[in-house]
Amino acid sequence: MNLNLVNRRKFIRLSAAAGAAIAVNPTGIQAAGNGTRKAEIPERVLGKTNIKVPILSMGVMRADNQAVVRAAYNSGIFLFDTAHGYQNGKNEEMLGEFFKGKKRESFILATKVKENQGNAAASRFIEKFEISMKRLKMDYVEILYYHALSRPEEVNFSPVVEAMVKLKKDGRVKYLGVSTHSNEPDVINAAIDNGNYDVVLTSCNFTQSHRAELNKALERAVNAGLGTVAMKTMAGGYLDKEHTRKVNVKAALKWAWQNPHIHTAIPGFTSFAELEECLDAAAHPELSEEEKAFLASASCKHGLYCQGCKSCIAQCPENLPIPDMMRAYMYNYGYKSPMLAKDTLLELNLQDNPCRKCVSCKVTCASGFRIAEKISDITRLQYVPDDFLV
Ligand code: SF4
Ligand code: SF4
Questions:
Q1: Ligand 1 pocket member 307 (CB < 6 A)
Q2: C-alpha triplet 233, 239, 241: angle, nearest 5°
Q3: Residue 241: exposure state from Cβ atoms within 10 A (0-12, 13-18, ≥19)
Q4: Ligand 1 atom closest to Cα of 364?
Q5: Average model confidence (pLDDT) for the chain?
Q6: According to the model, what pLDDT value does residue 301 have?
Q7: pLDDT tops 80 at residue 7
Q8: Ligand 1 atom with the shortest distance to the CA of 368
Q9: Phi, psi of 93 (to 5 degrees)
Q10: Could you give the CA distance from residue 368 to residue 364 in angstroms, rounded to a whole number?
Q11: Ligand 1 pocket: which of 180, 209, 309, 377 to mutate (most atoms <8 Å of CB)?
C-alpha cells in the first residue's frame, strides 16, 4: 500500500475531526485545523515577538508538493519558512497559492533575502523583497531575514539594515531577522548588539564542533529577547555520500529541542512520512535510548556537513567560497536536492573549473574533507540543464 496515501488519509481524518477546534493563543495566532495534534506538541515563545510557536515548524525549502504543506498546516504547524531564492521563486509561489484565501492569522510566513554588500545593495534587496511578496500574494510577512550572513559587518551593513527597518515601520514586515550557516556565534552576537533584529535563524546540529560557543550565543540571544530558530538540524540527512549512514531524524530534532535556547526548528520534510516522523518526535521530545546511542556514535562525525569555520578560504589561492560549495555538495549528496544545489552554486558566480590552476589542493579542511575532490564533483552540476534535475 502507498505509504503517502495512508498518511494523507490520516491527515484528512485528523483535520476533519478537529474542524471546530481552532485554538487561539494569547498572541492572536490561530493554530490551523487540528487542535488535537497541536495540543501534543510543546510550544515555546519566540522571544520578543511574543508568538507562541510549536517547537516544530516547516522549512519549506525543498518541498514542491502543496499537499505536504496542507498536511503540516492541518497538523497544527503554523510557521512556514521559505526564501526568495528557493526553487527560483517557485517555493514562494507554491506557498502563495496554498495560503490564498486562508485566514491571515492562521499562519506565520518567514522569508529571506540574500544580498551582497555594495552599491545599490539596499535597492536590490527591496526589489527582491517586493518580488517575494508578489509571489506569496501577501501584503506583509511576519519575519524577513537578511539571509546567509557569516560576518558581523554584514549584520551591520547599514544600507540593508535601514531598508529592513523601513519595511518594518511601513508594516510590510512584522519582525526582522538574520539567518546564518557559517560563523554563527559571531553573527548571532552581532545581531543582538545591532538592536534592530528580533529573530535569529541558525544552523544547529549535533555534529557542530563549535556547539558550545553557539549555545553561549543562543543563550545570550534569548536573554536579550530574540527569538531563535534552528535549521540544518539533520546535518545533511546522511553521514556519507553513499547513503549508508542515515541521520536519525528524531534524534537530530530532539537534540536541538533539548536546548532551551532554541524556540522552534524548521526541518525540511518533503513527504507525509517525513512529516509524520517529525510530528512524532515533537510529540515525544525526550530522547530514547536508541536515539541517545545514535547521537553518541554520530556526534562530531562531520559526515556531509561543513562546519562553516572558513579556515579553508585563506588557504586557497583562488579564494574560492569553499563553505558555500560544500553546502551545495551537502544539498546534492545528502538531501538529494540537485536543483537546490545548482541554485546555490549559481549564486556563487564560479568560473569554469575553479580549481584548474592548482596541481594539487593546498587546503586542509577542519572536517577532513577532500576539498578539491568535492569541488570537482559538485561543480559539474552547474552545467546540467534544469529539466534533468528535480
Ligand atoms: S575548513 Fe572544511 S569545515 Fe571549515 S568551512 Fe572549510 S570546508 Fe567547511
Ligand atoms: S584545488 Fe584547492 S587550493 Fe586549489 S583552487 Fe581548488 S580548493 Fe583552492
A1: yes
A2: 120
A3: middle
A4: 1
A5: 89
A6: 64
A7: no
A8: 2
A9: -60, -40
A10: 7
A11: 309
The protein residue with its alpha carbon nearest to ligand 1, atom 8, reads 306
Q: What is the CA radius of gyration of the chain?
A: 20
In contact, 15 and 34? CB cutoff 8 Å: yes
Q: Is 372 in the pocket of ligand 2 (CB under 6 A)?
A: yes
Ligand 2 contacts CB of residue 355 (under 6 A): yes
* Ligand number with the minimum distance to the CA of 363: 2
For residue 34, the tally of other CB atoms under 10 A from its CB is: 25
Ligand nearest to the CA of 376: 2
As beta bridge partners, residue 45 has 52
Which pLDDT tens digit goes with each residue over 123-170? Answer: 999 999 999 999 999 999 999 999 999 999 999 999 999 999 999 999
**Can you list the domains of the chain with their CATH numbers?**
3-297 (3.20.20.100), 313-388 (no CATH)
- 313, 329, 362: residue to mutate for ligand 2 pocket, most atoms within 8 A of CB: 362
Please check whether residue 52 is in contact with residue 44, taking contact to mean a CB–CB distance below 8 angstroms.
Answer: yes
Residue 63 C-alpha cell reads as 518541498
Which ligand 1 atom is the nearest neighbour of the CA of 182? 5
pTM of the model: 0.85
144, 201 contact by CB (below 8 A): no
Residue 114 has pLDDT above 50, yes or no: yes
- Please say if the pLDDT value at position 16 is more than 70: no
